Amino acid sequence: MDIHRNGMAVETGGAGPLLRRWRESRHLSQLELALEAAVSARHISFLETGRASQARRCCSPLANVLDIPLRERNFLLLAAGYAPVYGETSLDDHG
User: Could you say which of 43, 48, 65, 69 would form a disulfide bridge with 20 (CB–CB 3.0 to 4.6 Å)?
Assistant: First the structure.
C-alpha cells in the first residue's frame, strides 16, 4: 500500500526505492553517493534493494548529500520506519 502526500507516493516497503529515486534525480551513481556520504557503495546498493535497513544515523548524511528538502526527509524517515523529525508549518505562519 502506498501513502500519497503532496502528489508523492511513499513505499511502505522501506526507504530503498525512495532513496534510489532521489539519487537518480540528482544524477549520482551509487559510488558517487557513497563517496560523498562516507559509506560503501555496497551499503548504498543494499539500502536501495532492501537487503539492509536504513539506520537513523545514516539518513541525515545521505539526505544532506542528495540535498533532499526537509519535508521530503520526513518521508524518507517514515519509509525507513522512523518518526519524522522536521516540523511542518503553513506558509501563513509568521513564526
Answer: 48
pTM, rounded to two decimals = 0.76
Q: Return d(Cα 17, Cα 23) in angstroms, integer.
A: 10
Q: Dmax over Cα atoms in the chain, in whole Å?
A: 44
Residue 94 has a pLDDT of 59
13-37 per-residue burial string, b: 16 or more CB within 10 A, e: under 16: ebbbbbbbebbeeeebebeebbeeb
pLDDT at 91 over 90: no
Cα 85 from chain centroid?
13
Residue written as grid cell 540535498: 67
Mind listing the pLDDT tens digit for each residue in 38-88? Answer: 999 999 999 999 888 777 777 889 999 999 998 899 988 988 888 888 876
Q: Is the torsion defined by CA of 22, 47, 53, 60 positive or negative?
A: negative
> Between 56-66 and 30-37, two packed helices, what is the crossing angle to 10 degrees?
110
